[in-house]
Amino acid sequence: xxxxxxxxxxxxxxxxxxxxxxxxxxxxxxxxxxxxxxxxxxxxxxxxxxxxxxxxxxxxxxxxxxxxxxxxxxxxxxxxxxxxxxxxxxxxxxxxxxxxxxxxxxxxxxxxxxxxxxxxxxxxxxxxxxxxxxxxxxxxxxxxxxxxxxxxxxxxxxxxxxxxxxxxxxxxxxxxxxxxxxxxxxxxxxxxxxxxxxxxxxxxxxxxxxxxxxxxxxxxxxxxxxxxxxxxxxxxxxxxxxxxxxxxxxxxxxxxxxxxxxxxxxxxxxxxxxxxxxxxxxxxxxxxxxxxxxxxxxxxxxxxxxxxxxxxxxxxxxxxxxxxxxxxxxxxxxxxxxxxxxxxxxxxxxxxxxxxxxxxxxxxxxxxxxxxxxxxxxxxxxxxxxxxxxxxxxxxxxxx
Length: 400
Known about the structure:
This protein is mainly α. It has one domain (2-186, 201-391): Up-down Bundle (Growth Hormone, Chain: A). Helices cover 77% and strands 0% of the residues. The chain has 15 helices and no strands. Helix 2 (20-33) runs parallel beside helix 7.
């Protein structure tokens, strides 16, 4: 569990949560050099992040399929190499396409070292207290998002964004890769055959896809990741617009606070789900996410914390419990492919959110006010989908 937590802290921190402090200097350098047009600068940033998210979903599905045939440890080593190479290439990129290729490698790495493989790894070890175990493990995604900006921001200020990114790649080569090679151990489970229906350890991937609750959970995950992605990637830029007027340092602190607060949400939701039931707690967390997003209709520097605190708690809790539900409702036998499919759907929702947010910001001259109304709308949809999951969960499932 410790290695899985570190894996998520490093992989998600360096490929998703910790990258926003790099966006402004990257954007300014590329606009100044003519590598991108100023009118499309926000879209360039959104596209870069979208590539990472989309490919993380595609390769999560690929990784889930490969996990039935190869040891997770081997897949995690591949993920480390892809992530390290992507960071090095990104630090040297001179064109938009080179950045896109680097972000593609970083996204692919998450299919092997990110959330889906780590959830499968931990789920195989825990029967009792699985919610708490997953909550602790998935805290890693928030730790990376909280700590990497605090490390990256002064490095960027003193050495430039390129040297800062190259230096941070050392976390992969010198910390994560050795940890995976030395410490990862896994338990084997019985594989599910789609043609034979559920096994003693859960439903097959094909049978899971035939259930209404799978698609309700998938809809919830897509609608949750729209606001999660837009906020974690572009809120830092929103805060620095003239309307809000927050400095780069304060915006980086707010970015870190978002992930730091979500740590509490992930741990508390995981613990509470063992006591009260995952479905109930997920519905509450989705409702909290939606309630917080209403502040975006009148966001100011003074109300930013009013938005961030409940939003981060709700996002952290909902994130953990979507992963738990995907593993728990259908059992562990084919968890890799089921989680990979949910992850793919999550990132499609995230990519749509990032694309719409970037497009609307460009359309309004870099102002993110209207763009972030979409976060509120998607959060409302996520809450409705969570309620649907709760209602469907009362029915019998062909799993576990």
